[in-house]
Amino acid sequence: MLHKVTGAAQARASVRFLSHTRYLAAKNYSDNSENPVMEYDPLMVPTHYQQEVLHDSIFCKGTGFDMAERERYSLRGLLPPRYFTLESQAHRLYHASKGIAIETKYTDDPRVDLARYSFLQALQDRNETLFYKILFDHIEELAPVVYTPTVGVACLHANQLYRKPRGMYFSARDKGHMHSMIYNWPRPEVDVVVVTDGSRILGLGDLGVKGMGIPIGKLSLYVTAGGFAPQKCLPVMIDVGCDNAEIREDEFYLGLSRSRLPDKEYFEVMDEFMAAVRFRYPNALIQFEDFRTPRAGKVLRRYQKAGYRVFNDDIQGTGAVALGGLLAALKQTGVPLADSRIVVAGAGSAGLGVSSALVAGMDIQAPDKNNFDNFWMTDADGLLTARRGELNDEQKQFARKDEHYMRYEKASLLEVVKEVKPNILIGLCGQGGTFTEDIVKAMHQNCDR
Fold this sequence. Notes:
The chain is an alpha/beta fold. It has helices spanning 7-32, 48-55, 67-72, 86-102, 110-126, 128-137, 139-146, 150-156, 158-161, 178-181, 213-226, 245-248, 263-280, 295-305, 313-333, 349-365, 393-398, 413-420, 437-446, and strands spanning 168-171, 192-196, 233-239, 285-288, 310-312, 342-345, 375-379, 382-383, 424-427.
């Protein structure tokens, strides 16, 4: 596949052509003239032209450059002589990544997947076409390696794994400079921006800039499964500090060593970033990823109201998928969604987002009913009730207000399930092992199917 060459690269190619022409003229003169040999002082060829082709992961094809392309881009001698097709390169490197697991005694060790993650990340940094070819051909096997759950382990070890910058970092120190910074991104077009502030990375909590692997991994899946062009994707980290003292005080931590900004200063940074992105890329979708509760909802609503093209995967994406799945499943039971009794384990942005989507679905079926009454939401401290003082506005909508359930404020999930007798139980807390055998048996007693 021939790659489009930028205007700047074409200009450099013209310089090379003129230089070569001048060289031939000088050589011909010295060979065929009685005059003394002419000192050749050629116009210097910009060597970074070849380096741009080889080191730009979008353009680089590795050993996939055929001889005509190697001549055209001045790559002769800079690559091994043998030409390999994309398919043969993918076959070789997939088996190289597979060998990491085969050569390891314990193939289920998370360190094996982390090693494969690093291998594939290095490939993505040098040849994205080949990276996506391998990922597309083996998506079921490799999606958990380039994204969850392996990306969580990679984020924890980000200080040690960092090799090459990918995406952009906007920090609190950059306030007042973001409109010019956005032009440092070398791509003229961007279709989608995935941005995180690192405040709630999966179930790992506040990781600060170590969470950059999340937008990178998410966009890898969007390219592979969604058909986005990789050169039109922009992963972004907003560094406004980190509230995990152990992480931010690490001597190798790559971000700002300070606690997170309060709301006023935080939204000043976010407002400037959002305006900068919209100014240069007015048609880009901006996706918020892994923002902690309650800021996740505040950020989404703030920029929706301001007319930005925004989306929160944890709140809207997970909610849409859950709503569709439940509507399909409830056709088998004959129970309408609006008549369901739902216990939700998890009161963070994912739990609130999914529950809000279900309420929206119920409102269509039963518009005159308060459908928040269909929910019993729990967290690590028990059932959410109106007596809790630390709830945010979204959580207050789902908090139980009936006196009967006040005594379950400190109850376990099993106790809530036995009392409520729900026909739907949803886990959105990110804590493994939450649904014990006793909870599953209690659910089975409440459901015919």
